Amino acid sequence: MSTMRFVDRVLRRRRATVNDVALEAGVSRGTVSRVLNGERYVSSEARAAIDAAIAKVGYVPNTAARNLVTQRSGAIGLVVHEPHSLFVEDPNIASILLGANAALSEADYQMACLIADTRRDVDRLARYLSGGLLDGVIIVSARTSDPITSVVEKLQLPAAFIGHPVDISTSAYVAIDNVAGAREITSRLVATGRKKIGMIAAALDRDSGADRLAGFTEALGGDVDPSLVAGVRLYSYSDGQAGMRELLERHPDIDGVFASSDAVAAGALDVLTAAGRSVPGDVGVVGFDDSSWALRCDPPLSTVHQPATELGRAAADAVLRQLQGEPVEPGGIFLDTPIVWRASA
Amino acid sequence: MSTMRFVDRVLRRRRATVNDVALEAGVSRGTVSRVLNGERYVSSEARAAIDAAIAKVGYVPNTAARNLVTQRSGAIGLVVHEPHSLFVEDPNIASILLGANAALSEADYQMACLIADTRRDVDRLARYLSGGLLDGVIIVSARTSDPITSVVEKLQLPAAFIGHPVDISTSAYVAIDNVAGAREITSRLVATGRKKIGMIAAALDRDSGADRLAGFTEALGGDVDPSLVAGVRLYSYSDGQAGMRELLERHPDIDGVFASSDAVAAGALDVLTAAGRSVPGDVGVVGFDDSSWALRCDPPLSTVHQPATELGRAAADAVLRQLQGEPVEPGGIFLDTPIVWRASA
DNA sequence: TTGTATGCGTTATCAC
DNA sequence: GTGATAACGCATACAA
């Protein structure tokens, strides 16, 4: 503390306070505060003197102090609990971020994007969230039994989760129906006459991954040959390659593939063409997300559109509504996932 | 305010304070505070009683209040002043963010990523920055005469800019030498025997864009035919396509192209092959950034490596050093930009 | 219309 | 070791 004071006083000039302004303008702190908050009942002389004084002493309000008394900060956090690198790779996260920022920005809230990966990050972030520096929080990818989730629920911080982690009870969430999306696109693949359809199922440890597998299974009438499902860890290009190699080795005559994300599908596509299979001639491939990967593929991918931007926006709206005192929608908010049919199947 | 109190008291339970803990444990606030901050000189009985009380009343510290007295928040902002969409598209920004977050996370600071686009965003952000909620700030892409820049300089907020906006004087910055990078890669293109070399020069309104053009010009001995330079607005794929079409129309016999970013080069490449030119057979193409675009191209791009992650890390380190009381490095910090020679030239 | 007094939740400086 | 008490910078109910 004394160090900080020293720095404050000597290296930088001390920040002017309301008191300094009041002294300079020859009025009381209360009057200055009223001017600052744009209240009526201030004489024009007082206002003029105060404006001049503010400019002279270079006053700028201290939000931390204001927070303490108003109990609000004007900022809403967007928490991304993912391996750091995913933040760069996953186009969904970026779109969610954009949608949330648009909505918050319109409501004149400052969005602060917070990312956490390691245990230490998570603990620090949980501390930060509990600090009262944020009026609310949007949580992009919570895990089960996540310290972040428990802090949010314990503090009853106005929040909206994206996706539906199993252990939230009181908080709002917005999600897509992964089961339905996967079911529909798989059905369309079946409808094109494919007989031997496999799936590259990534991220089975997440609800999204597990749900997409469930949808695939449903579309195929409930029972699928397990050897037609290649489980991989991440929604990534390279895991898509690995999964496709596995499938191709087990079933050289495979003629349809549902990849649980577009990145996975892109990897599968490249492995297929490298193996001499034509797409969609020999094998039909479909993905999930409708991310930039889908259009970058050759042929462009048929896929399930994930409304990432709208998810962000809806989550932001949900938090804003809670801030207005409205109750949380029980059961969550679900967004549509239309099928986008292109050339890969 | 009264609304907030109401919400606090009724809808949610009131947050327990140090006082509540002190009452519950039968000690004074001072002692509680000492326990909280891990100081010695606390009897083990007191400590035990306090720990129990904390658990019982569900105490969680209020950072806003702590900030007020300690004058620090443990958070550092990362400001991105760009069109929102660029945040998704520009791989450099994401890498910078990752590098910065890694360094800050190691130092146990919470990074808060703040993005601004519109005038209103910028004003709100400037207000936020001046609020004392952040101990320091990394600024990814400042403009000239940017309210954000002026707030930072006025408040003498510990800061590090990435790149070197013209109107910063007291703040630290980390940058790459765009002139040198462009000069070197152009020289290598010349050395491969290309005779008619053009440039697609994006973002000439930024120092980076202008510097890359300057480097190109230097490598060509100072005078270049202006018709061999196609100026475009953004470092984007589509602007790269447009620039290449322009160049090809003016000089059908062009045999070398320096694109001022990899995304631009990717656009150029596709236009060239669509026009029946082989790369690198007929035309050699080089880019700038060494982003994921470079490897995605066919053939893979020869380019200038931009150490984006390291830029973020260096900027974070610069801010952290200032927080330790060290003075700002005059003249900035420059990072190397090695050439990565692949197959496109 | 304005000034005064009090409180927001913490940490820090003292005496004890 | 511990407990008062004074900051921190601001907003606001109330008195004037």
Description:
Two copies of one chain form a homodimer. With 345 residues, the first copy, chain A, is α/β, with parallel strands linked by helices. Chain A folds into three domains: 3-61, lambda repressor-like DNA-binding domains (434 Repressor (Amino-terminal Domain), Orthogonal Bundle); 75-175 and 309-335, Rossmann fold, CATH 3.40.50; 178-304, Rossmann fold. Helix content of chain A is 48%, strand content 15%. Chain A is built from 15 helices and twelve strands. Chain A has helices spanning 2-11, 18-25, 29-36, 44-57, 63-70, 84-89, 91-106, 119-129, 147-155, 178-191, 207-219, 237-250, 262-274, 292-296, 308-323; strands at 75-81, 110-116, 136-139, 159-162, 172-176, 197-202, 229-232, 256-259, 284-286, 303-304, 333-335, 339-340. Chain A has a six-stranded parallel β-sheet with strand order 2-1-3-4-5-11, with helices on both faces. In chain A, helix 2 (18-25) packs across helix 4. The longest helix of chain A is centred in the N-terminal third of the chain and has 16 residues, at 91-106. The model of chain A is unreliable at 1-12 (pLDDT under 50). Chain B binds a DNA duplex (16 and 16 nucleotides) through helix 3 and helix 5.
